[in-house]
TrEMBL record:
This is Uncharacterized protein. It comes from the Bacteria.
Length: 218
């Protein structure tokens, strides 16, 4: 059930991204969305999806310690519980990737889990491609493999490269989270011909959470 809600919400969120870009151009076009906007917008979409399915859910932003940079949103739907973290991947180099994993590790300390509900951690991020190698390897690092539509990227001047590592391995090693569901989207389209803009990338990763995933519940 909860995985279906996440999948439906991500599809709806693509349309939300297009509207946000239209309303806030050129800010989003140049920089992507702020962490808090990413997390809050997707969280609201999930609450709407749950409501459409007859499940009431509340949404709050958790208070976090000063060393945790990323905003965390908690969606409380009774037996369905989601924690959403938004992250803007401005510079996708090794330092930024490591900081993201560390922030997730620290964030797990804030989460309250129990065995009587279905819990998910949902990470959402975006990125505008640039000419750096870090940017070119980001899709394969996030997915764990190269995207299938390489020719579409190349047609827009994006020459993707294979990453040496992967988000899946990094997050399993440092956060003890495995069996994640990693996705990549290109929600924006050119107004004149409706062609997909591959230079903007939206990424998601979802994980099932158990009480032993949080350091605070050990």
């Amino acid at each position: 059930m909860l995985d279906d809600v996440i999948s439906q919400s991500l599809e709806g969120f693509k349309a939300d991204c297009r509207k946000l870009c239209e309303n806030h151009y050129p800010t989003i076009h140049n920089r992507g969305m702020r962490d808090i906007h990413l997390g809050k917008a997707l969280s609201r979409r999930i609450v709407s999806t749950l409501s459409a399915g007859g499940h009431y859910a509340s949404l709050v932003q958790l208070e976090t310690a000063e060393h945790i940079r990323l905003p965390i949103f908690h969606i409380n739907g009774g037996q369905y519980q989601l924690y959403v973290i938004g992250h803007r991947m401005v510079s996708p180099g090794a330092g930024c990737r490591h900081a993201l994993i560390t922030d997730i590790q620290w964030s797990l300390e804030k989460l309250e889990l129990s065995s009587d509900a279905d819990f998910r951690l949902l990470l959402v991020s975006d990125h505008w491609f640039d000419r750096t190698m870090a940017s070119k390897t980001l899709p394969s690092w996030w997915l764990g493999n190269m995207p299938v539509d390489l020719e579409a990227y190349q047609s827009q001047g994006i020459k993707l490269q294979l990453s040496d590592g992967s988000l899946s391995k990094d997050i399993e090693h440092q956060c003890s989270l495995d069996n994640g569901n990693f996705k990549l989207f290109h929600p924006l389209k050119r107004l004149k011909d409706n062609e997909v803009i591959y230079k903007y990338m939206l990424m998601s990763a979802s994980f099932t959470l158990h009480p032993n995933n949080t350091l605070g519940n050990d």
